[in-house]
Amino acid sequence: MKNTHIKIIDVGLGNIASIQRIIDKAGGQAIPILDPSRLHRGDKIILPGVGHFNEGMSRLTKTGFANFLVDFGKTQEIQLMGICLGMQLLCRSSEEGNMPGFGLINADVKKFRFPPESQMKVPHMGWNVVSAARVSPLFPAMAEEHRFYFVHSFKVVPDDPTIIIGTANYGDDFCAAFQQGNIFGVQFHPEKSHRFGIRLMQRFVEL
Q: Nearest-5° angle of CA 205, CA 167, CA 67?
């Protein structure tokens, strides 16, 4: 029987209520977690995130979540999805801060940079099309259009481009979603993406 319980790490880094609602709409049962002792092997976990990289790492370290995610993430004993800043925290480092990330993904987080004459604005904010880079549990139909809501100034740059499962274009193509084993990251906000977000969350619930 599939585990439809989704535990949401709650250290004040995201809109937990919105994520709860979309999980419920997707047929799962959302369980906010404030204490890492309530996380176990085999769990499905969402790491949400908005705000500054250093602040995110500091809160997760102080609350003990960081050690759990690194230990279980390395052994692939959990199914983990990082959302927005949560995705970036799974990487090695970020230009936004000087603290190391979890290092579960061999990737660095770089700021969007455009020449002075460019019309591109930072942050990248609003709806954008995400194209499936390869078939994956989150994007099983490559021909299907996926549209999601983004708010971010930094992007994930993986060492190995084959872990990228979704790309979007903002001045150039960038990694909008990755998968490495049981670890997923999405740069967009499924909880703000209406039917597209519900569809994606249904796929995570059904893993």
A: 55
At 89, is the secondary structure helix, strand, or coil?
A: helix
pLDDT in tens, 64-116: 999 999 988 888 789 999 999 999 999 999 999 999 999 999 999 999 999 98
Give me the active site residues, please.
Answer: 84, 189, 191
Residue type, 17: A
Nearest-angstrom CA–CA distance, 79 and 16 = 18
The domain that holds 128 is classified in CATH as 3.40.50.880
Which structural domain range is residue 120 located in? 5-205
Residue with tokens 């670890």: 183
- Locate the DSSP E strands across 66-172: 79-83, 93-94, 107-111, 124-132, 146-152, 154-158, 164-169
